[in-house]
Amino acid sequence: MTFQFLGMPERAAAMRAVFAAEAPEIAFHDRDDDIDPADVRYLATWTPPADMARRYSSLELLFSTGAGVDQFDLALIPSQVALVRLVERNLIAGMVEYASGAVLALHRDFIAYSAAQKRGEWRERPVLAATQRRVGVLGAGELGRAVLAALRPYDFQLAAWSRSPRSIDGVTHYYGSDGLDAMLGATDILVCLLPLTPDTHGILCHSLFEKLPQGASLLNVGRGRHLVEHDLLSAIEAGRISQAILDVVDPEPLSPGHPFWTNPNILVTPHIASVTEPVGAARAIIANIRRHRDGEAPDGLVRREAGY
Protein backbone atom coordinates (compact mmCIF):
# COMPACT_ATOMS: atom_id res chain seq x y z
CA MET A 1 0.00 0.00 0.00
CA THR A 2 1.51 3.31 -1.11
CA PHE A 3 0.50 6.69 0.32
CA GLN A 4 1.71 10.09 -0.87
CA PHE A 5 1.42 13.44 0.90
CA LEU A 6 1.61 16.64 -1.13
CA GLY A 7 2.31 19.43 1.34
CA MET A 8 4.92 21.37 3.25
CA PRO A 9 8.15 19.46 4.06
CA GLU A 10 7.92 20.03 7.82
CA ARG A 11 4.41 18.59 7.88
CA ALA A 12 5.55 15.70 5.72
CA ALA A 13 8.36 14.90 8.18
CA ALA A 14 5.97 14.81 11.15
CA MET A 15 3.49 12.61 9.28
CA ARG A 16 6.23 10.29 8.01
CA ALA A 17 7.32 9.64 11.61
CA VAL A 18 3.78 8.65 12.61
CA PHE A 19 3.40 6.31 9.63
CA ALA A 20 6.76 4.69 10.39
CA ALA A 21 5.91 4.12 14.05
CA GLU A 22 2.22 3.24 13.82
CA ALA A 23 1.60 1.97 10.28
CA PRO A 24 4.83 0.55 8.85
CA GLU A 25 2.80 -1.56 6.42
CA ILE A 26 1.81 1.64 4.55
CA ALA A 27 4.65 3.06 2.45
CA PHE A 28 4.81 6.83 3.06
CA HIS A 29 6.07 9.21 0.39
CA ASP A 30 6.03 12.97 0.05
CA ARG A 31 6.19 15.17 -3.07
CA ASP A 32 9.97 14.99 -3.25
CA ASP A 33 10.24 11.19 -3.28
CA ASP A 34 11.08 9.52 -6.56
CA ILE A 35 8.18 7.12 -6.99
CA ASP A 36 5.94 5.97 -9.80
CA PRO A 37 2.60 7.83 -9.34
CA ALA A 38 0.84 4.81 -10.78
CA ASP A 39 1.77 2.94 -7.57
CA VAL A 40 -0.01 5.44 -5.31
CA ARG A 41 -3.32 4.19 -3.94
CA TYR A 42 -3.84 6.91 -1.32
CA LEU A 43 -3.14 10.62 -1.80
CA ALA A 44 -3.45 13.52 0.67
CA THR A 45 -3.33 17.13 -0.52
CA TRP A 46 -5.01 20.51 -0.15
CA THR A 47 -5.39 20.83 -3.92
CA PRO A 48 -4.64 17.97 -6.33
CA PRO A 49 -2.44 18.29 -9.43
CA ALA A 50 -4.32 19.25 -12.59
CA ASP A 51 -3.32 15.93 -14.18
CA MET A 52 -4.21 13.84 -11.13
CA ALA A 53 -6.56 11.47 -12.98
CA ARG A 54 -3.88 10.60 -15.54
CA ARG A 55 -0.91 10.58 -13.18
CA TYR A 56 -2.45 8.61 -10.30
CA SER A 57 -4.11 5.86 -12.29
CA SER A 58 -4.35 3.45 -9.32
CA LEU A 59 -5.74 5.98 -6.84
CA GLU A 60 -8.50 4.76 -4.52
CA LEU A 61 -8.75 7.40 -1.77
CA LEU A 62 -8.12 11.14 -2.09
CA PHE A 63 -7.78 12.91 1.27
CA SER A 64 -8.31 16.61 1.83
CA THR A 65 -5.81 17.91 4.38
CA GLY A 66 -8.50 20.19 5.82
CA ALA A 67 -12.09 19.96 7.00
CA GLY A 68 -13.43 21.39 3.73
CA VAL A 69 -13.39 20.12 0.15
CA ASP A 70 -14.59 23.21 -1.72
CA GLN A 71 -11.10 23.60 -3.19
CA PHE A 72 -11.60 20.38 -5.19
CA ASP A 73 -13.30 20.28 -8.58
CA LEU A 74 -15.36 17.12 -8.13
CA ALA A 75 -15.84 16.83 -11.90
CA LEU A 76 -12.10 16.20 -12.30
CA ILE A 77 -11.98 13.38 -9.74
CA PRO A 78 -12.62 9.95 -11.31
CA SER A 79 -15.82 8.32 -10.09
CA GLN A 80 -13.96 5.34 -8.65
CA VAL A 81 -11.88 7.60 -6.38
CA ALA A 82 -13.43 8.35 -2.98
CA LEU A 83 -12.89 11.89 -1.68
CA VAL A 84 -12.45 12.11 2.10
CA ARG A 85 -12.40 15.28 4.19
CA LEU A 86 -10.32 15.44 7.35
CA VAL A 87 -12.22 14.57 10.52
CA GLU A 88 -9.72 14.87 13.34
CA ARG A 89 -10.07 15.61 17.05
CA ASN A 90 -7.64 18.53 17.18
CA LEU A 91 -9.19 20.14 14.11
CA ILE A 92 -12.60 20.03 15.77
CA ALA A 93 -11.22 21.18 19.13
CA GLY A 94 -9.57 24.20 17.52
CA MET A 95 -12.83 25.27 15.92
CA VAL A 96 -14.71 24.79 19.19
CA GLU A 97 -12.18 26.96 21.04
CA TYR A 98 -12.26 29.74 18.47
CA ALA A 99 -16.00 29.78 17.85
CA SER A 100 -16.88 29.62 21.55
CA GLY A 101 -14.47 32.44 22.36
CA ALA A 102 -15.75 34.53 19.47
CA VAL A 103 -19.40 34.06 20.45
CA LEU A 104 -18.57 35.10 24.02
CA ALA A 105 -16.63 38.13 22.71
CA LEU A 106 -19.63 39.19 20.62
CA HIS A 107 -22.00 38.50 23.50
CA ARG A 108 -20.00 40.74 25.86
CA ASP A 109 -19.26 43.46 23.26
CA PHE A 110 -15.47 43.05 23.23
CA ILE A 111 -15.21 44.62 19.77
CA ALA A 112 -17.06 47.72 20.93
CA TYR A 113 -14.91 47.95 24.08
CA SER A 114 -11.75 47.61 21.99
CA ALA A 115 -12.88 50.49 19.80
CA ALA A 116 -13.72 52.53 22.90
CA GLN A 117 -10.26 51.87 24.32
CA LYS A 118 -8.67 53.28 21.17
CA ARG A 119 -10.77 56.41 21.66
CA GLY A 120 -9.78 56.63 25.32
CA GLU A 121 -13.41 56.24 26.29
CA TRP A 122 -14.54 54.60 29.58
CA ARG A 123 -18.20 53.75 29.17
CA GLU A 124 -20.23 50.76 30.30
CA ARG A 125 -22.53 49.01 27.88
CA PRO A 126 -25.73 47.18 28.88
CA VAL A 127 -25.06 43.56 29.82
CA LEU A 128 -27.52 40.97 28.52
CA ALA A 129 -27.74 37.66 30.38
CA ALA A 130 -26.74 34.63 28.31
CA THR A 131 -30.20 33.19 28.91
CA GLN A 132 -31.58 36.08 26.87
CA ARG A 133 -29.06 35.87 24.03
CA ARG A 134 -30.08 33.90 20.94
CA VAL A 135 -27.26 32.16 19.07
CA GLY A 136 -28.00 30.59 15.68
CA VAL A 137 -25.57 28.31 13.86
CA LEU A 138 -25.70 27.78 10.12
CA GLY A 139 -24.53 24.21 9.62
CA ALA A 140 -25.21 21.22 11.86
CA GLY A 141 -22.39 18.89 10.82
CA GLU A 142 -19.57 17.68 13.10
CA LEU A 143 -18.18 21.17 13.63
CA GLY A 144 -21.55 22.83 14.14
CA ARG A 145 -22.71 20.23 16.64
CA ALA A 146 -19.42 20.41 18.54
CA VAL A 147 -19.63 24.20 18.82
CA LEU A 148 -23.24 24.03 19.98
CA ALA A 149 -22.33 21.45 22.62
CA ALA A 150 -19.57 23.73 23.92
CA LEU A 151 -21.98 26.69 24.15
CA ARG A 152 -24.71 24.82 26.03
CA PRO A 153 -23.25 25.32 29.55
CA TYR A 154 -23.57 29.10 29.14
CA ASP A 155 -27.36 28.75 28.79
CA PHE A 156 -27.65 30.67 25.54
CA GLN A 157 -30.83 30.14 23.55
CA LEU A 158 -29.31 27.89 20.89
CA ALA A 159 -30.58 27.14 17.40
CA ALA A 160 -29.16 25.50 14.30
CA TRP A 161 -30.09 25.29 10.64
CA SER A 162 -29.29 22.68 8.02
CA ARG A 163 -30.79 21.42 4.78
CA SER A 164 -32.44 18.39 6.35
CA PRO A 165 -34.05 17.62 9.75
CA ARG A 166 -31.84 16.75 12.71
CA SER A 167 -32.27 16.28 16.44
CA ILE A 168 -29.70 18.01 18.66
CA ASP A 169 -30.04 18.01 22.45
CA GLY A 170 -30.74 21.45 23.88
CA VAL A 171 -30.92 23.06 20.43
CA THR A 172 -33.90 24.24 18.40
CA HIS A 173 -33.33 22.88 14.91
CA TYR A 174 -34.58 24.47 11.71
CA TYR A 175 -34.28 23.17 8.17
CA GLY A 176 -35.19 24.16 4.65
CA SER A 177 -35.75 27.67 3.29
CA ASP A 178 -38.72 28.39 5.57
CA GLY A 179 -36.75 27.19 8.56
CA LEU A 180 -33.84 29.44 7.67
CA ASP A 181 -36.03 32.54 7.67
CA ALA A 182 -37.55 31.54 10.99
CA MET A 183 -34.17 31.03 12.66
CA LEU A 184 -32.72 34.27 11.31
CA GLY A 185 -35.59 36.27 12.76
CA ALA A 186 -34.78 34.87 16.20
CA THR A 187 -30.97 35.16 16.13
CA ASP A 188 -28.82 37.76 17.89
CA ILE A 189 -25.45 36.13 17.06
CA LEU A 190 -25.23 34.27 13.75
CA VAL A 191 -22.43 31.73 13.29
CA CYS A 192 -21.62 30.43 9.80
CA LEU A 193 -20.17 26.92 9.77
CA LEU A 194 -21.61 25.81 6.45
CA PRO A 195 -19.69 23.89 3.81
CA LEU A 196 -19.10 25.93 0.68
CA THR A 197 -21.29 24.67 -2.17
CA PRO A 198 -23.01 26.37 -5.12
CA ASP A 199 -26.08 26.69 -2.88
CA THR A 200 -24.21 28.40 -0.01
CA HIS A 201 -21.91 30.63 -2.07
CA GLY A 202 -22.76 34.24 -1.12
CA ILE A 203 -25.37 33.19 1.44
CA LEU A 204 -24.24 35.91 3.86
CA CYS A 205 -25.71 38.74 1.84
CA HIS A 206 -28.10 41.70 2.00
CA SER A 207 -31.27 39.59 1.86
CA LEU A 208 -30.08 37.37 4.72
CA PHE A 209 -28.92 40.30 6.86
CA GLU A 210 -32.33 41.96 6.43
CA LYS A 211 -33.95 38.94 8.08
CA LEU A 212 -31.85 39.30 11.25
CA PRO A 213 -32.93 41.52 14.14
CA GLN A 214 -31.51 45.05 14.08
CA GLY A 215 -28.05 45.09 15.66
CA ALA A 216 -27.32 41.36 15.29
CA SER A 217 -23.72 40.08 15.25
CA LEU A 218 -21.97 37.83 12.73
CA LEU A 219 -19.24 35.21 13.07
CA ASN A 220 -17.96 33.65 9.85
CA VAL A 221 -15.73 30.62 10.32
CA GLY A 222 -16.95 28.87 7.17
CA ARG A 223 -15.42 30.15 3.94
CA GLY A 224 -14.72 33.62 2.65
CA ARG A 225 -16.95 33.07 -0.35
CA HIS A 226 -19.96 32.62 1.92
CA LEU A 227 -19.85 36.38 2.48
CA VAL A 228 -20.75 39.22 0.13
CA GLU A 229 -18.31 41.73 1.58
CA HIS A 230 -19.91 44.97 0.45
CA ASP A 231 -23.27 43.77 1.77
CA LEU A 232 -21.71 43.31 5.21
CA LEU A 233 -20.19 46.78 5.12
CA SER A 234 -23.55 48.25 4.12
CA ALA A 235 -25.34 46.29 6.86
CA ILE A 236 -22.88 47.57 9.46
CA GLU A 237 -23.27 51.14 8.24
CA ALA A 238 -27.06 50.78 8.48
CA GLY A 239 -26.87 49.24 11.97
CA ARG A 240 -28.46 45.97 10.85
CA ILE A 241 -25.20 44.24 11.82
CA SER A 242 -23.52 45.74 14.88
CA GLN A 243 -20.26 43.76 14.84
CA ALA A 244 -18.60 40.90 13.00
CA ILE A 245 -15.73 38.50 13.52
CA LEU A 246 -14.29 37.05 10.32
CA ASP A 247 -11.70 34.27 10.28
CA VAL A 248 -12.06 33.77 6.52
CA VAL A 249 -12.11 36.16 3.56
CA ASP A 250 -11.87 35.80 -0.20
CA PRO A 251 -9.25 36.09 -1.46
CA GLU A 252 -6.76 35.39 1.30
CA PRO A 253 -4.76 37.13 2.58
CA LEU A 254 -6.91 40.24 2.95
CA SER A 255 -5.55 42.87 0.57
CA PRO A 256 -3.79 46.00 1.85
CA GLY A 257 -6.19 48.91 2.08
CA HIS A 258 -9.25 46.69 2.35
CA PRO A 259 -11.99 48.43 4.41
CA PHE A 260 -12.19 45.46 6.78
CA TRP A 261 -8.75 46.43 8.19
CA THR A 262 -9.95 49.73 9.58
CA ASN A 263 -13.63 49.15 10.30
CA PRO A 264 -13.98 49.40 14.11
CA ASN A 265 -16.92 46.99 14.08
CA ILE A 266 -15.03 44.14 12.38
CA LEU A 267 -12.37 41.85 13.82
CA VAL A 268 -10.37 39.87 11.25
CA THR A 269 -8.14 36.88 12.03
CA PRO A 270 -5.97 35.13 9.40
CA HIS A 271 -7.84 31.82 8.95
CA ILE A 272 -6.55 30.32 12.18
CA ALA A 273 -9.77 29.10 13.81
CA SER A 274 -8.94 25.48 13.10
CA VAL A 275 -5.50 24.43 11.89
CA THR A 276 -4.53 20.97 10.68
CA GLU A 277 -2.06 19.34 13.06
CA PRO A 278 0.12 16.84 11.15
CA VAL A 279 0.38 14.13 13.82
CA GLY A 280 -3.38 14.00 14.35
CA ALA A 281 -3.97 14.21 10.60
CA ALA A 282 -1.63 11.27 10.00
CA ARG A 283 -3.48 9.15 12.55
CA ALA A 284 -6.86 10.03 11.07
CA ILE A 285 -5.62 9.12 7.57
CA ILE A 286 -4.12 5.84 8.76
CA ALA A 287 -7.41 4.92 10.45
CA ASN A 288 -9.31 5.64 7.25
CA ILE A 289 -6.91 3.65 5.09
CA ARG A 290 -7.45 0.70 7.41
CA ARG A 291 -11.23 1.17 7.26
CA HIS A 292 -11.02 1.18 3.48
CA ARG A 293 -8.84 -1.90 3.49
CA ASP A 294 -11.40 -3.68 5.70
CA GLY A 295 -14.27 -2.77 3.36
CA GLU A 296 -15.69 -0.02 5.58
CA ALA A 297 -16.61 3.54 4.57
CA PRO A 298 -13.98 6.13 5.56
CA ASP A 299 -14.85 8.66 8.24
CA GLY A 300 -15.51 11.93 6.41
CA LEU A 301 -16.49 10.39 3.08
CA VAL A 302 -17.76 13.16 0.80
CA ARG A 303 -21.18 12.74 -0.79
CA ARG A 304 -20.65 13.96 -4.32
CA GLU A 305 -24.30 14.79 -4.86
CA ALA A 306 -24.21 17.14 -1.86
CA GLY A 307 -20.69 18.47 -2.42
CA TYR A 308 -19.50 17.80 1.15
TrEMBL record:
**InterPro entries in UniProt:** D-isomer_DH_NAD-bd, NAD(P)-bd_dom_sf
Q: Which SUPFAM superfamilies match?
A: Formate/glycerate dehydrogenase catalytic domain-like (SSF52283), NAD(P)-binding Rossmann-fold domains (SSF51735)
PANTHER family noted in UniProt? 2-HACID_DH_C DOMAIN-CONTAINING PROTEIN, D-ISOMER SPECIFIC 2-HYDROXYACID DEHYDROGENASE NAD-BINDING DOMAIN-CONTAINING PROTEIN
Name used for this protein in its record? Glyoxylate/hydroxypyruvate reductase A
A molecular function annotated in GO for this UniProt entry is: NAD binding
Q: Where is the D-isomer specific 2-hydroxyacid dehydrogenase NAD-binding domain?
A: 102-273
One of the Pfam families matching this protein, by short name: 2-Hacid_dh_C
Question: Where does the UniProt annotation place the signal sequence?
Answer: none
Q: Which UniProt keywords apply?
A: NAD, Oxidoreductase, Pyruvate
Keyword NAD (UniProt): yes
